[in-house]
Amino acid sequence: MQNIEAIIFDLDGVIVDTARFHYQAWKRLAQELGFYFSLEQNERLKGVSRMESLELLFEFGELPLPSEEEKVRLATKKNDWYRENILKMTPNDLLPGVGKFLNELKEANYKLAIGSSSKNAGTILSRIGYDKFFDAVVDGTKITNSKPDPEVFLKAAEKLGMKPEKCVVFEDAHAGIEAAKRAKMRTVGVGSKQVLFDADIVVPDLKDINKKIIDELN
Ligand code: B16
Ligand code: MG
User: Fold this and answer.
1) pLDDT tens-digit series, residues 193-213
2) What tens digit of pLDDT does each residue of 156-177 get?
3) How far is the CA of 176 from the centre of ligand 2 (A)?
4) Is 1 domain-assigned?
C-alpha cells in the first residue's frame, strides 16, 4: 500500500457543523409540505446535491414530484433559509479540534483539500477564515455528479497532483465514504459507526485527533 501524502476533507459535518443547518432547513420545508422529516431520514441527504436532496424529501413525504419550476422554487427557498445561518458563521464555528489538526497536518507537509458537494462551500470557507488555507477546493460548483459518485474526490486529487491511492478522505456521510471508496482512496468516517460502517476507521469527532491517525492507515 502507498503512503498517504494528501488529505481530503468533506466540509459540511466534518470541518463545520453546517449539517444541522441543512437538516433544520429541510425539516422546515417538509413541515410546510405537511409532513415530519426525521433525523434518521436526514442521513440519506448528507453529501447529496441540493436537487437530489429535494427529490429524496418528496420520496420521504410520499408526495408526487412537482414541476421543474416548482422544484427550483422550493430548493431556492430551502437554500435561503440555510444561508441565513451560514452567513452568521465566524471563525469560532470550526468544529472542536479541527483547527489544531489542520495546522498539524500542514506543518507535516501533507497536501490538504476540500471535497464538498455544496455550492455554498466558498461562502462557508470565507466566513470561517479558511478560504486561502487549502491547496485545492473542489465543491458543488465544480462537479456534475455529487456523492456517492467519486468525481469530487478524483478532481481534488487531480488538482493536488496526487494519485488517489495516496489520498485519505474524512467524511461524515455514508454517500461520501462510498464516493471515496469508489475513487480508491482510504477513508475516515467522522460520526456514528452504524452509519459509517464501511469506512476504514470511524471516529466520533475530530476533538482529540492528531496525525497518528494517518500512520494507522499507512
Ligand atoms: P448546497 P458536503 C453537502 O455538503 C451536504 O452534506 C448536503 O447535505 C447538501 O445537500 C450538499 O452539500 C449540497 O449543498 O445546497 O449548499 O449546495 O457534506 O459534501 O460538504
Ligand atoms: Mg458532509
Assistant:
1) 999 999 999 999 999 999 999
2) 999 999 999 999 999 999 999 9
3) 7
4) no
